[in-house]
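During the reporting period the student researcher (J.K.) took over the structure-prediction task from the postdoctoral fellow and processed the backlog of single-chain submissions. One of the processed entries is reproduced below for the supervisory committee.
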Amino acid sequence: MVNEGSNIVVAVRHLKKKFESILAVEDISFEIKKGEMFGFVGPDGAGKTTTIRCMCGLLSADEGSIEILNSDIKKKKKEIQNNIGYLSQKFSLYGDLSVDENIEFFAEIHNVRKFEDRRNELLEFTRLIPFRKRAAEKLSGGMKQKLALACSLIHKPQILFLDEPTTGVDPVSRRDFWKILSDLQKESMTIFMSTPYLDEAERCNRIALMNKGKIISMGTPQFVKQSIGKKVMEIVTPNSRDAYNLIKSKSAYEVQLFGDRINIIIEKLSSESNSILKLLQENAVLVDDHRIIDPSLENVFMTLITQKIEY
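J.K. obtained the following structure tokens:
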């Protein structure tokens, strides 16, 4: 049991969830502090959605425990659900209802009686006031997500769970959505979100990288990036594919290709970088530029899954 005097608002211990022969979540544990933005990062099928649904009481875990706001989800599911907000990947807005009517509907679900002031506040917060009479089905993808967020906040939850909230949303709407999340966190709201986007993970206080149902690294984004204890040699070349194949075939380095840039994971900075440049030169591969940089989260994730390192 989480100590009631602590600032831990979510505690997951040895969570396991299986669907027939597929182990979706395999023995994961983590804690989240009050006011923290915690990111679950990983590709489709990593176990992110399953974990969130277990935490919100929508799925029952096969093993392990989940405590939300000092209560066991198995024992006090309804009480917990009244104090959390959940935005799923496929949030069910009612297309024929207006923006106002959708928020009113969710207010009634959560037994919020005098919701008008709160609704106005949320509409202003999400910049949806000019569209309040518009049917939800006529909103853009980004506006639908903001409306879905407003609906999940109508009852003033203490913790907000977001499952890939910006997937399929245009860049401008993504930026607006993140501005809203930043403002929510300033109000000390705890936010747990899953995302396939590693650039979004950089905005979180702490993250957990997930792959195939397991947490493979966890900590602040900076800690995770430093955890592999290596650097990246970045090479810019017009012959990136040839250079990539050459280094892969003639060396044991881990090589990652990003357009006209190649990232090579190295340890001994000068000796290894010199040997790589020599290899390219001997094979007439033109190098426009090269530098040593810190690894990105993408570098780290690809390194961890390639080496099959487990957290």
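The committee noted the following: Residues 171-186 form the longest helix (16 residues).
J.K. will present the remaining backlog at the next meeting.
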